[in-house]
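Justification of resources, computational component.

The compute hours requested in this renewal are based largely on the per-chain cost of generating structure records like the one below. Each record pairs the submitted sequence with a full structure-token output. That output is archived, and it is also reused by downstream analysis tasks.
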Amino acid sequence: MKDFIIPDRDMGTPAVKSGTTVNLTVDGIKVRVPAGTSVMRAAAEAGISVPKLCATDHVSAFGSCRLCVVQIDGMRGTPASCTTPVAEGMVVHTQTDDIARIRKGVMELYISDHPLDCLTCAANGDCELQDMAGAVGLREVRFDPGANHFNAREAGAPNPEYRPKDQSNPYFTFDPAKCIVCSRCVRACEEVQGTFALTIEGRGFDSRVSAGMAGDDFLSSDCVSCGACVQVCPTATLIENKVIEIGTPEHIVKTTCAYCGVGCSFDAHMRGEEVVRMVPSRDGRANRGHSCVKGRFAWGYATHQDRQTQPMIRENISDPWRVVGWDEALDFAATRLRRAQADHGVDAIGVITSSRCTNEETYLVQKLARAVFGNNNTDTCARVCHSPTGYGLKTAFGTSAGTHDFDSVDETDLALVIGANPTDGHPVFASRLRRRLRQGAGLIVLDPREIDLLSTPHMGEGLHLPLRPGTNVAVLTAMAHVIVAERLYDEVFIRARCDWDEFMAYAEFVLDPRHSPEEVEKTARVPAGLIARAARAYAAAPRASIYYGLGVTEHSQGSTTVMAIANLAMMCGNIGVPGTGVNPLRGQNNVQGSCDMGSFPHEYPGYRHVSDAATREIYERVWGVPLRSEPGLRIPNMFDAALAGHFRGLYCQGEDIVQSDPDTRHVTSALAAMDIVIVHDLFLNETSNYAHVFLPGSSFLEKDGTFTNAERRINMVRRAMTPRNGHEDWQVTQMLANRLGANWSYGHPSEIMEEIALTTPSFSGVSYDLLEREGSVQWPCNADAPLGTPLMHVDGFVRGKGRFIHTEYIATDERTGPRFPLLLTTGRILSQYNVGAQTRRTANEVWHSEDLLEIHPSDAENRGVRDGDWVRLASRAGETTLRAVLTERVAPGVVYTTFHHPTTQANVVTTENSDWATNCPEFKVTAVQVSPSNGPSEWQEEYRSHSQAARRILPAAE
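The structure output for this chain reads:
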């Protein structure tokens, strides 16, 4: 493989962890490697490349191609170097006459059954078979043409063993004529992805890679299009369609995925300013060379025809848009913002930023509110997903973030997953977790649905607690009841790291009979014995970790649930060592970063309250303006104030609040009541239907900056192409601020990071120079931890002593009844992302083109609903229609849908109920009724008509 394609050398077999080392000699070079290392990898460590075809360090050694044979003193024959472990004093020869003859013979056999169309092959210059033929010195093939797997196919032979190309997948092509049956793809699907979608069928000459049953292709099979098979294929058998279309890349830009909170590192393989393919970085510490269908393939939205690249304005939201220049758009926006403040007061305007934006962009937006608008009216979409994480973990541990890195999962003995669906929402992490489950780790899932993680191939038994939506606190406290009652807690840890008297008070609280599994069973509908089994399993595991998602936080007791999770971890000593911890799986790419950067109305960057005089003094000195000490408005408060006539202007960067926030009617009414709404985004979205100014944004491929993932890892985002709108997003915010008199003069995002480091203790050691050198770091990164902090709370909690908090279960105000007897909960699906603005503009639509309602067969039968029928989904807030899917993944009384498609607008039925501490909406519990329907609701028809009218654009002036 050419260096310009794969800059990181493939060592042939995976690295081995061992406390002992072995000395050996390879071609006269002395090498010391960990015990258990393969001879092939030892040779690579010495700088010696052993020819190979079936071997790669992505997967375990297989030993099928026989190209990597070597000679070892004292050992008979020529063993395969990939499957032969090193031994003390071993002397290895990788180049001898006998070895050369064997390798040439092997290559002749491969080439005799391979089409020699190298000059027109899409993998020309990027083909390991081609490279290995050169490496062994093959110059001719002695075998006469005979039966093979390509000529007959070209001639149209009817023999079933000759198969046509499989072009069913929208992103890659499978050409069986070029397959050398090395099994790399099969092993990658098993070992890296954990899907087991591929297999080798047949024997000998009839061996073939198969994507499933006889009638399956790559689209209809269990393949999840993660790209692992494409990445390891040594020929053009599995190859990206973009490579076929465009050609070989000519340079690489390292960047970070802009989808979920895993924060995968990618190498953008470019030809000029065109992306040819996105390849997961082998040195990416969050993803370790793996990816999912979104990050690997769904980046085409960046160049989609729907992109708006010019600013637009209009006097009223009923008018069509008018394309204008940047100066006119910014002047229009600034004038209206100042007019709103002049007429209604300094607090009449505010900002909302997005977790899709970089740290630097988010920092500037909250600075815009505080230093330019003169108020603290700044909020973020993290409000509607993980604000309870910040509150709950800060209260219990002293810091508002996850405790461990993703590598920690490799050492866990049991994973407790609550309110998260990693295979759909965080698939790369899910693959790592599945690998650990196959190695024998235990699994406990608390979720109303039966998620795919429970059906992990070759896993032992997993416990599923199918709790009723809204009862997380009750079940977790019941687990604590069992642990305390049976004295399963870690007394040594608690006495050393927590307040013992506080724990005893908590123990008395949880021992109350109302918290027993038997009592909780009546509320949560989880068998008491199952709750007890889960509690004992968690307490008994030497190292247990907890992973949770929006099914924890998006509840009226979201913050209480986070505290209950923290209680479990502390009482069992599962904090501060690898394999343990409390780990929130952040939904979007920069949820953690948007919180870190002070986007909430009550906190400056670094989670310091606005009322703290010392913190304000820091920013007043650096920003040069006086700052307010009173918290500003949260997003729900902005909406309420707008309807009351007090809040009149909003700058919304990168967030589609109409589709993503609860009670859509309330949101649209609030936006329609404002004098000035500025939307800064890639596309005209649902929120822009109510906007007066549209400022075109830049995609992650068009900007420099940083994202912070769910493990607190700060990753670089690097510009791979010129912004289509002419400006990176931070520049647009700066131009708006300067129109309002700010006089900012940042020349590059690195200068913004310098200011963040200057003012934020947990980021004080962060710089672009450090990130370029180290690849990434995890905050806190400061004088005490100059290279970052992979594990938090190792020697003690940030707050000092860990705090046990009483977690009283208080039922949600959202109750079922005769009118609304079912409970709706919502979530995501693998192929789509959040409100779908990006993924709906890619070929991912082939897997999920509409939101569907999952309903249990018994509930469907009671309502006369059949699979695929249109149904009316109604709540106290509103109604919508969508198609039904009958499934036993949900329990009777529970229905489930996604929120990716604006044609459904699932949030029109969700209510304004929210978490008691943070106002995080209660998306996961809505009382609904389901009934047959003939098609779209009246509201959907009205909304579709309004949306079409709101997106009219006047033709450009001649």
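Confidence is low (pLDDT under 50) at residues 1-7. The two ends are 52 Å apart (CA to CA).
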